[in-house]
Amino acid sequence: MSAVFRILLLCLFFNLSAFAADGVDVAGQRISIALKSEPPTLNSLQASDVVSSFILNHVMEGLLQYNMRNELVAGVAERWQLREDGATFWLRRNALWSDGKPVTARDFVFAWRQVLIPATASRYAFILFPIKNAERVNRGELPADQLGVKAIGDYQIDVQFERPCPYFLGLTAFATYNPLREDFVLARGGSYAADAKDMLFNGPFLLTRWDHGAHLTLQKNKKYWNAAAIRLQEIDIPYITADASAVFNLFQEGSIAMAQLDTATLQEASARGAPMQLFDTGALYFLEFNLQPNRMTANVHLRRAIQAIFAQEQLTDKVIGMPGNLPTFSLFPRSVKGINGNFRDEFPPTPPPRGMAIAKQELALAQSELGIKQWPPLVLLASVSATGKRQAEYFQQLLQTGLNIPVRIDNQIFKLTIEKMNRGDFDIAMAGWLPDFDDAITFGDLLASWNENNRGRYNSPRYDALVNAANATGDQSKRMLYFSEMQKMLIDDVPILPTFESTEIYAINPELHGVSRALFGGDLDFRHAYVEALAK
Amino acid sequence: MWRYILRRLLSGVVTIWFIATATFFAMHFVPGDPLSSERAMSPEIRKNLQIKYGLDQPLAHQYILFLRNMLHGDFGISFTQQNRRVNDIIREHFPVSALLGIVSLIIATVGAVLWGAVSAHYRRRWPDSAIMLLVIVAVSLPGFVTAALVQWLVLALNRQWGFTVLPVAGWGTWKHLLLPAWVLGLSTMAYMTRLMRASLLEVAHADYLRTARAKGLSAHRIFFRHQLRNALLPVITVLGPAIAAITTGGFVVELMFAIPGLGRYFVEAVQQLDYTVIMGTTVFYGAFLVLMVLLVDIIYGVVDPRIRVAR
Fold first, then answer.
1. What residues does A408 pair with on adjacent strands?
2. Does domain A7-275+509-531 have CATH number 3.40.50.720?
3. Which 3 state secondary structure label does DSSP give A327?
4. What is the fold, at CATH topology level, of the domain defined by B86-303?
5. Quick check: A246 and B52 CB within 8 A?
6. ∠ CA(A527), CA(A531), CA(A533), 5° rounding?
7. Contacts of B175 in chain A (CB under 8 A)
8. Rounded-to-integer distance, Cα A487 and Cα A329, Å
9. 8 Å CB contact between A194 and B84
10. Which of A349, B38, B203, B290 has the most CB atoms around its CB within 10 Å?
11. What is the ipTM of this complex?
12. Does B308 touch chain A (CB under 8 A)?
């Protein structure tokens, strides 16, 4: 009955709320944008996806935060001290919750314990594991009060580490480390963050409207400690759809300020001369080889032969055909920090040996080692998306014509791709990795033998030893040497074949300025954005 | 009549139970894991999640638990929308799909009766041929093509006239409703037009029409009272399945017009293996379909006294 009633209500109010939103409103400092999907959850204990992080990054704030250049700056904490065995944070007194009460050290301690207790079942619990006893609390072996974090008074937090963690400051900017207020969360019972009214905010914006699947509105938080630096008054999100052409149509109509472009809409946007902006995503894409002993791809010479004939530029320029994607042969993207500057500048990778002659030589070695004349077809696991299919066909062509190896493409929807990768049901898989925090280890330990994400099951005691060594010290110059060694090993062993670092391209309203993109656990960043009329 | 309805309702319950059971086991035997994501999980974190969703229990136990909750009208919490109850998802998003469906059905039926009548009236002359050609085009075009074409056209119009005649996408005002409802109803309108034309022509030669003409009734009265009413029967027959198809099949249209309907959740749940949402939406749509078919059968009796069930 209530459904019928709602239909009637919808009919009644349909005419009254008639007004078309504008993409940018200079006088009101407000913009409208579209979102790819409904945020799966805005409970920071559980959020693990890009869309949820996008909203959370605007309405919440951790101890530290990334600025628009993706550098760490003060958040709720105004100063801090990082040691080998732990860290101390001093909180600012003017950080407030949206109900006016101060953000205190207890709010962080409560949130971090909640993340780890088994009943919360947080997917991102592992990101707190550098804290002493965290892993054991998460396994249910220790009570949550044994976690190595203490509130000293209202404005000081002491953290003890399980092992040295030179990148801990970056972790505190991640949504899972956000504070939560105990009295508010407990009063809401299980429904904390189920709706906008079931949330408290401490970030630059407030979530004032959340019609599930339909419409979200963020409004400037006047109580935010740094409110003077925030210029946008409102970010309205009246459209939720994953359809790129619909989003681009809305942009052309002027209803939204930005639209992410895919291959098809990019052509249309260029033809219309729409202003565009490129953003680095920090993500690395690669081919993952299955190294389990019963697979042809377990043979290193076969992998080197594939490496030798593969030209990354061809894939990015001709096959994907989107500007900005950067060909690479290193595990560590350009955004990874080194000792003082960028890791890649300080430790440039040596290009792998390439060319037809080397490929032939390696292929002959592989054939004699495996004792085969004719190659059986290799299974290439790829997604069902248009770009996934196009890339897979390119690799199929490459292996068939270049090496005379037949390839069977296995296009699967996302869940089944993951399932098949976990089961080891592939020879080559197209995979990618997004960094969680600002340290090379987020990429480096990807190929450690114990990492569940190492789905090709690369197992090198030497590589494992390097990862362990990097985890055992806080000395950055030593750690970077270990990472440089890992970089070298991977080019030599080829357990994965890096392809490119990805970018996203948006059509953007020229009156909108100051938009950036979070590289670590986030998406577009409008915290420093503003709208300004174009000079006539 | 009431006994008939009661009997149909009872068999409907059995149908729904069967749909629920078949879906439940099919879903669990599909390869893939509802808990998996890009980021692999440690065994501990995975165990915590399994306990949270009851996936640590044996399948038979899960099934009994599901049936018991279903009897209480509770489908649990979504796997992907981790703070939302499946009941809330259906309650909030079905009305949107239903409104879109109703409007598109009205457009489709009115259009079909109109074009079918015109086409039958001008049989074998150019208006008939033109309409039949358009019908074939409309039936053959998939929804996403029509949607894209319509959006492109409206965008061009808006640009031409310098103001937003109709919004290209979105939801919230009656203007947002027109394009998607039309796109969604187009193929239904097309095949109902054909049906309407055929059945109007069939009854045109019926004896009772000759009698009516012989009595000297006005052409207007003959058409509406005798010809149209009798010709409507086959159209009403397909109406039941059409209602179900339109309200559930709006996935592409909802996606392309950014409409917060239930169709999107239905399809995405299957792709994401969101067990609770799959079960909730399937059982709900199953019940909806059963009710619609029953409703059509009752309307059938009203329109045609010959098949009225009055035992």
1. A379
2. no
3. strand
4. MetI-like fold (1.10.3720)
5. no
6. 165
7. 18
8. 9
9. yes
10. B290
11. 0.85
12. no
B79 touches chain A (CB under 8 A): no
Question: Which whole-number Å values give the CA distances from A375 to A151, A426, A429, B84, in the listed order?
Answer: 63, 16, 18, 51
* B247: closest CA of chain A, how far (Å): 13
Fold exhibited by the domain A282-503: Dipeptide-binding Protein; domain 3 (3.10.105)
Nearest-by-Cβ selection for B169 from A120, A192, A239: A239
Over its length of 536 residues, how does chain A's per-residue pLDDT go in tens digits?
Answer: 454 555 544 544 443 333 344 899 999 999 999 999 999 999 999 998 999 999 999 999 999 999 999 999 999 999 999 999 999 999 999 999 999 999 999 999 999 999 999 999 999 999 999 999 999 999 999 999 999 999 999 999 999 999 999 999 999 999 999 999 999 999 998 889 999 999 999 999 999 999 998 999 999 999 999 999 999 999 999 999 989 999 999 999 899 999 999 988 999 999 989 999 999 999 999 999 999 999 999 999 999 999 999 999 999 999 998 888 999 999 999 999 999 999 999 999 999 999 999 999 999 999 999 999 999 999 999 999 888 999 999 999 999 999 999 999 999 988 889 889 989 999 999 999 999 999 999 999 999 999 999 999 999 999 999 999 999 999 999 999 999 999 999 999 999 999 999 999 999 999 999 999 999 988 999 999 999 998 76
Q: Contact, A42 vs A55, CB < 8 A?
A: yes
A-chain CB neighbours of B260 within 8 Å are 211-215, 240
CA distance A52 to B299: 47
**CB-based contact B37 A419, cutoff 8 Å:** no
Please report residues of A whose CB lies closer than 8 A to that of B104. Answer: none
Of B175, B181, B173, B257, nearest in space to A10 by CA: B173
Of B33, B42, B51, the CB nearest to A126: B42
**Segments of chain A assigned to CATH 3.10.105.10:** 282-503
CB contact under 8 A, B258 and A240: yes
Task: Note which residues in 25-54 of chain B have CB less than 8 A from chain A.
Answer: 31-34, 36-42, 44-45, 47-49, 51-52
In sequence order, the 6+-apart residues with CB closer than 8 A to the CB of A28 are: A233, A234
Nearest CA in chain B to A246: B256
Spatial contact of A519 and A280, defined as CB atoms under 8 Å apart:
yes
Q: How far is CA A442 from CA A117, A170, A333, A354, A472, in A?
A: 24, 11, 11, 28, 15
DSSP A420-458: HHHHT--SEEEEEE--SSSSTHHHHGGGSTT-TT-TT--
A164 close to A143: Cβ distance less than 8 angstroms? no
Q: Which of A514, A481, A453, A529 is nearest to A284 (CA)?
A: A453
- Taking residue A184's Cβ as centre, other Cβ atoms within 10 Å add up to 16
Q: Say yes or no for a CB contact (<8 Å) between B175 and A18.
A: yes
Those of residues 191-210 in B touching chain A at CB distance below 8 A are: none
Domain boundaries, chain B: 86-303
Q: Specify the 3-state DSSP secondary structure of A504.
A: strand
